[in-house]
Amino acid sequence: MRVVVAEDSALLRDGLVQLLELRGVETVAAVADAETLLAAVAAHAPDVAVIDIRLPPTQTDEGVRAALRLRVEHPGTGVLLFSQYVETAYAARLLAEPAGFGYLLKERVVDIGEFVAALERVATGGTALDPEVVAQLFGASRRATALDTLTPREREVLALMAEGRTNQAIAASFTVSERAVEKHIANIFVKLGLPPSQEGHRRVLAVLRYLESVRAR
User: Fold this and answer.
1) How do residues 96-132 score in pLDDT, each as one tens digit?
2) What is the helix, strand, coil percentage profile of the chain, to 5?
3) pTM of structure
4) How far is it, in rounded angstroms, from Cα 48 to Cα 76?
5) Nearest-CA neighbor of 52 among 95, 94, 9?
6) Which residue among 118, 166, 192, 216 is least enclosed by CB atoms within 10 Å?
């Protein structure tokens, strides 16, 4: 099995390469950024690309966006995301075609043999998913479904809440009473499953769910 590793931490990258070599896995390229990853896959046509989600220059989503490109431009190469983070929006898009895709969390891999077995499954068109990734993806899907139950006016109210508007400002935008806006917001909380709680601010939680749905589009 031939792999390309994309990991910006030199210590983690070299350590992973050495561990794979001890298991008979050939690393044809070990790179630190997304552009070099894309070039390496094009040059070496590996069986699998092991990719950290957050790569230079911004350390946000370069790795997962590169994974999306690889799925289109090099469908014969398996993709294994290997990260500390769960990126639900992009992962859901990658899972639209699950063959040859994996997503494992670094802190939950405790056996290199199991990691190599996951690589082999991905290389042969299978799937390797950490249960925590599945749980968070399922949760994101449920939240999106809840947002779909909002009426057009409720979504407009939620969008203005996301802009930081007060109830008074929202009422002025729609030329309605503040009481009408309060009723819309109460309905939003109910539909999103946000009961009164001392553990979190419902208005902030509703806005976060809205922003997550916008980002996922």
Assistant:
1) 777 899 999 998 888 899 999 999 999 999 888 887 7
2) 55, 15, 30
3) 0.65
4) 9
5) 9
6) 166
The structure tokens listed for 173 are 């935008």
pLDDT the model gives residue 199 = 47
Distance of alpha carbon 158 from alpha carbon 184, whole angstroms: 9
| Type and span of the H or E element at 206 | helix 202-216
Below-50 pLDDT ranges, the chain: 199
Burial letters 140-160, b for 16+ CB under 10 A, else e: beebbebbeebeeebbebbeb
For 25, list phi and psi in degrees, rounded to 5.
Answer: -95, 125
Look up residue 43 and give its two tokens: 């040059």
pLDDT of residue 86: 78
Determine contact, residues 44/2, Cβ cutoff 8 Å.
Answer: yes
Q: What pLDDT was estimated at residue 124?
A: 93
Q: How confident is the model over 148-159, as pLDDT tens digits? A: 888 999 989 998
Amino acid at 74: H
Residues belonging to the chain: 217
Q: Please, which residues have CB within 8 angstroms of residue 127's CB and are 6 or more apart in sequence?
A: 98, 99, 100, 101, 102, 121
Coil vs helix vs strand at 75: coil
Q: Which residue has the tokens 């290389």?
A: 123
Rounded to whole angstroms, the Cα distance separating 173 from 157 reads 10
Q: Which segments within the chain are labelled E, that is strand?
A: 2-6, 26-31, 48-51, 78-83, 101-105, 127-129
